[in-house]
Amino acid sequence: MKRSRDHQAVPLADRLPAHRRSVRIELDRPMELAPVLGDRLDYGRFADLIVDTSGRLAAEGVGAGSTVAIVKQNGLDICALGLAAQRIGAVPALLSGTLAPADVAALLTALRPALLVTDRATTRDGALAGIDLDGLVSRTWIVDDHSRGLASWTGEPPAPFMARSPDLPSLITHTSGTTGIPKLVVQSTASLRATVRVNTKAARLLRLRGGVAARLSYVHVRSMAGITAMLELTAPLLALTTQHPPTAVAALRAFKPFLVEANPADYVDWEPVIASSDAPLAGVQYFINNFDAAHPRTVKALLRASDRRHPVYVQVYGQSESGPVTMRADTRSTAEHSDGRCVGFPVPGHSHVRIAASGTIEVRSKGLALDYLGRHDEFAAKFDGRWWDMGDVGARTRWGCLHLLDRAVDAADDVPSLLAIEDQLLERIPTLQEVVLVNGVCHLPTPLVCTYDGSPLAAETWARVVEDLPALAEPVYCRTDQLPRTATGKVQRYRLAEQLRSGASEGRRT
Which of 165, 485, 489, 497 is 20 to 30 A removed from 260 (C-alpha atoms)? Predict the structure, then answer.
């Protein structure tokens, strides 16, 4: 496969212009990597942190081609560590601190990293809890161990920048794990840079005239591409990690962003807070989400929360393996009548889309990854040398717009789109916080239903709202914190199905 030869020749942290170094970065909590920087810093300090950390990694024995596994609490310092490793020619492998320890142990076994970077909370209570690391990693750096943390480090000379060939591995992230143990996705310098170019071009088209607020999983390739683009653009940045909606919305109110990006699940959680607060998102011109299509109800709620004359919601569809594939934009007027399954059109000059005979979505993308580490056969089964199988069922309209209907593994034979039914249920029942249709539990799709106040719906109410929909099993009521999720907020439907089949669900049937 032909790949772009365009790649970063000089690390952005080293070439940050002087007039951009004072542009602010705000955090909702200090970084474990450098707590001395607090929660208010600037791009200059962040760039210096990347360079200093690369020296620390070199002092730990990391060199060109080494793999550095980074497994810690969610935060912007994950990106700083990843960029620091790339600066000296190493390959960062970013693993979510929310993964199950058994999954992390399997991924570390495949990676065999030269160095593991983590923090105390992750080793004590998170993804590394109970794991015997001695046989899995050569060395471990606990960044908030005060005896060895960056704050107490005496320092080393800046490590020299090591360029990587555009076709060699540059970054390893992992899939969401919605269908099983996550797969390790290997990005080349070329594929990562192609995704960065999409980010920077899109930002320039949007004409950023204010700050950017992001609530993301910072182990995702989207975040690494995004922070690299932000180092080029240097717009004021608010990096959120909190999963507590009132705290996140309060930070947004104080920051007053021009653009907000978050996972679709976060936007859903913010809905009741933004509706009852004193216009916390009044100044937002653009809302952006990646990974999944957002529910139409949520899109309309966000657009109503802005006092801008013509706010826009931008939906981006893609995955770790492909990078961004399609985009669409909604205004208040178009959102009233738009199909929630529509994820837009291919990114010009970057991606192409087609529907296979089986009904699955296939793409060509400049952001396509190199391989799955240790699982090449699975990658090859989805890639024919030109087209990548997204694993989603979809359709294209006569105008070429792509509609995402379901994950192929979740699709039901007699239902055109389970996701479309979820959209309809959320539109019809304002008290619903989340609804997930799970296939494979019985002969009908089973609705997992979460209400904002935790109360089940009256049986007659449920019967009325589903009477014109395809037949569904009786609903199971549960809390949103009982839904197993990935680091980006996706519901792990296969695990829900396993729980329901085994009777392990703590929900209650009506």
Answer: 485
